[in-house]
């Protein structure tokens, strides 16, 4: 009798669970429909082309297609082009260095801006500030290249003209690589800090105001409120965005490798300071038109990036399981 009753209970739980699941799906259906176009585009653009990584191990011929082309022998020959080149070490170090500098710089400035924007109580003034810092995000790197050139042009640049008025000799910006190690991160910061600061503003807006009211009653200063309330409660957002940075550590930047190609105005003298893996491969493969080698370097970057995300997520999971991405 007990076995029969247990079976009945099990069936009833299964039926109730199925009913609850159907109710939940029906209730959330508008959100699923809103998500569908984005999910379709992500699948179409990012997941369907993934079998194309097989090109890294093939001698690709357009007439034969991806799957009709023969596998290359030895299998990893396409990878030799990059790893045996003299500049592989330089562009790899540039890629890592710029991404680390940009990650730290953008995070610090974006969090600081978000905290300052949160202190602006007038909603119209706050909206004006947010709009102003967001404008560069929507500009293409080509536009930013011309803006930068208007400042750094040797003959007609604003900076050299100002220096000339004080009797100071103009700077040859496009022939001095060392200066571009600061120009590139600052240009990236100017373009992208608005986007990241808005993300942090949203995270701060989600903090319960009761925490701040209690802190004010206890006599906490603004800095103490930021240190002990704001920063700890937006830590999860900071960790998620940091994981995204780690995943792109070996790339030119989330679609922003164009910055390294366009901003230096293709000045060959600047390559030691501005060349990253993406730009080096693009320029090299544009000459020889070898898709297999391009796919090989892309696979190398993606594999390292994926491994770094897994490793960093595992470390975060050990330190704070609730803050881990998965």
Structure description:
With about 325 residues, the protein is mainly alpha-helical. Helices cover about 70% and strands about 0% of the residues. The chain has one domain: MetI-like fold. Helix 11 (about 235-245) packs antiparallel against helix 15 and helix 14 (about 275-290) packs antiparallel against helix 15. It is globular, with a radius of gyration of 26 Å.
Largest sheet: 2 strands, antiparallel
Number of continuous helical runs: 15
How much of the sequence lies in strands comes to: under 5%
Instruction: Report, as a whole number of angstroms, the end-to-end distance.
Output: 44 Å
What is the CATH topology?
MetI-like fold
CATH class: Mainly Alpha
Strands of the widest sheet, in order across it, are: 1-2
- In total, the number of strands is 2
Q: Fraction of residues in helices? A: over 70%
For the residues shown, what is the average pLDDT?
Answer: 83
What does the overall shape look like? globular
Number of structurally distinct domains:
1
Known CATH architecture: Orthogonal Bundle
Keywords: Cell membrane, Membrane, Sugar transport, Transmembrane, Transmembrane helix, Transport
Pfam family, one: BPD_transp_1
Family: Belongs to the binding-protein-dependent transport system permease family.
Protein name: Putative multiple-sugar transport system permease YteP
């Amino acid at each position: 009798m007990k076995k029969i009753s247990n079976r009945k209970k099990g069936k009833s739980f299964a039926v109730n669970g199925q009913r609850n699941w159907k109710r939940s799906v029906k209730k959330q259906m508008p959100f699923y429909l809103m998500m569908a176009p984005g999910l379709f585009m992500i699948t179409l653009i990012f997941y369907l082309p993934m079998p194309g990584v097989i090109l890294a191990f093939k001698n690709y011929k357009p007439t034969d297609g991806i799957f009709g082309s023969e596998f290359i022998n030895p299998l990893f020959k396409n990878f030799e082009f990059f790893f045996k080149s003299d500049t592989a070490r330089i562009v790899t170090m540039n890629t890592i260095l710029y991404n680390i500098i940009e990650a730290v710089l953008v995070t610090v400035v974006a969090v600081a801006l978000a905290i300052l924007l949160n202190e602006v109580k007038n909603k119209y003034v706050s909206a004006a500030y947010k709009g102003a810092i967001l404008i560069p995000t929507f500009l293409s790197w080509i536009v930013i290249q011309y803006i930068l050139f208007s400042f750094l042009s040797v003959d007609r640049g604003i900076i050299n003209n100002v220096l000339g008025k004080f009797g100071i000799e103009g700077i040859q910006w496009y022939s001095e690589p060392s200066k571009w190690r600061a120009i590139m991160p600052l240009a990236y910061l100017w373009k992208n800090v608005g986007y990241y600061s808005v993300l942090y503003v949203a995270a701060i807006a989600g903090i319960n105001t009761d925490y701040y009211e209690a802190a004010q009653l206890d006599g906490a200063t603004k800095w103490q409120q930021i240190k002990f309330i704001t920063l700890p409660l937006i830590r999860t957002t900071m960790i998620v965005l940091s994981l995204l940075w780690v995943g792109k550590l070996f790339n030119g930047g989330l679609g922003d490798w164009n910055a390294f190609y366009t901003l230096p105005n293709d000045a060959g003298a600047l390559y030691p300071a501005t060349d990253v893996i993406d730009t080096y491969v693009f320029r090299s493969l544009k000459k020889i038109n070898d898709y297999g080698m391009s796919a090989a370097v892309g696979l190398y970057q993606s594999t390292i990036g994926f491994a770094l995300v897994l490793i960093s997520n595992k470390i975060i999971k050990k330190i704070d399981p609730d803050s881990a991405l998965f």
